[in-house]
Amino acid sequence: MSSETILLFDVGNTNTKIGFSTRDKIGPSFTLPTDPGGTADSWGLKLVEICRVAGYSNEDIIGGAVSSVVPPMNPILKRAVERFFPCELRFAPDSIPLALNNKYERPWEVGADRLVTAFAGRQISDSENLIVVDFGTATTFDCVVGMDYMGGLICPGVLSSTKALASGTAKLPHISLEIECDTIRPGKSTADSLNQGLIFGFAAMVEGLSERLGKTLGGEVELIATGGFASKIAEVCQAIDRVEPTLLLDGLRMAWFGSEK
């Protein structure tokens, strides 16, 4: 394996994505439930097994980069990597610098995931004005003008909205989030109505909010979508210019190797 392989961690409120990366590209990735009740040993053993399945040895790993919005996970992962691997973890943005000027009123309040995806979007886009939409536990809109992170919006997530509907209504059928065509029409069943309402509803939210944000930012805006539901929403959302499924991991990759120059 490459002598420049690092571990990448996207620690979210629901799941933790663990990936491998070289300087040039993202390798295989795996998703585990985020469990701050686990120990450093339990997480370390999971990481060793993931490496084995992916075809890496512990000695192949030269470092690790983390984006975390779950603070209790940070010391657990740090100790796990230090015990089982010949390297240490670094956390964005505290110990991995991101080439963005954080214009948030209280800069420390911005989630690491939002900053990393905004940074990654800036690295791959030539547009002066940029909006990154991340369909995660929440749906976030993050705005970048030039090299300035301007802030953004936090809205309900697709999955959290689905769960809220399902848990609050006893007779609702299973919600698949699958639609038969890319043209909205009156639903012919409860399941069809729900699926169309969620998919086209979130598409309309993205179209409407991005248009309003664009007027505030000034000039044309490129919109990059990422997160688990990005591809599905993009099929019916005219505002989305491109989908980057691994944008956060790519941001960690670019930031980590960029800081090693």
TrEMBL record:
Residues recorded as binding substrate, renumbered to this chain, are: 104, 111-114, 190
> What Gene Ontology cellular-component terms does the record carry?
cytoplasm
Q: What class of enzyme is it?
A: transferase
* InterPro entries cross-referenced by the UniProt entry: ATPase_NBD (IPR043129), Type_III_PanK (IPR004619)
Pathway in which this enzyme or protein is active: Cofactor biosynthesis; coenzyme A biosynthesis; CoA from (R)-pantothenate: step 1/5
Q: Which cofactor does it need?
A: NH4(+); K(+)
GO molecular function terms attached to this record: ATP binding; metal ion binding; pantothenate kinase activity
Give the reaction(s) catalysed. Answer: (R)-pantothenate + ATP = (R)-4'-phosphopantothenate + ADP + H(+)
Pfam family for this entry, one: Pan_kinase
What processes does the entry annotate via GO biological process terms? Answer: coenzyme A biosynthetic process
Mainly localized where? cytoplasm
What the record notes about the co-factor is: A monovalent cation. Ammonium or potassium.
Q: What is its EC number?
A: 2.7.1.33
Which keywords fit this entry according to its UniProt record? Answer: ATP-binding, Coenzyme A biosynthesis, Cytoplasm, Kinase, Metal-binding, Nucleotide-binding, Potassium, Transferase
Which residues does the annotation say bind ATP?
10-17, 137
Q: Give the annotated active site.
A: 113 (proton acceptor)
What compartments host this protein? Cytoplasm
| Binding residues annotated for K(+), in chain numbering | 134
Would you identify the family this protein belongs to, as annotated? Belongs to the type III pantothenate kinase family.
| Assembly, per entry | Homodimer.
Q: What does this protein do?
A: Catalyzes the phosphorylation of pantothenate (Pan), the first step in CoA biosynthesis.
- Protein name from the UniProt record: Type III pantothenate kinase
Organism encoding this protein: Maridesulfovibrio salexigens (strain ATCC 14822 / DSM 2638 / NCIMB 8403 / VKM B-1763)
Q: What is the lineage of its organism?
A: Bacteria, Pseudomonadati, Thermodesulfobacteriota, Desulfovibrionia, Desulfovibrionales
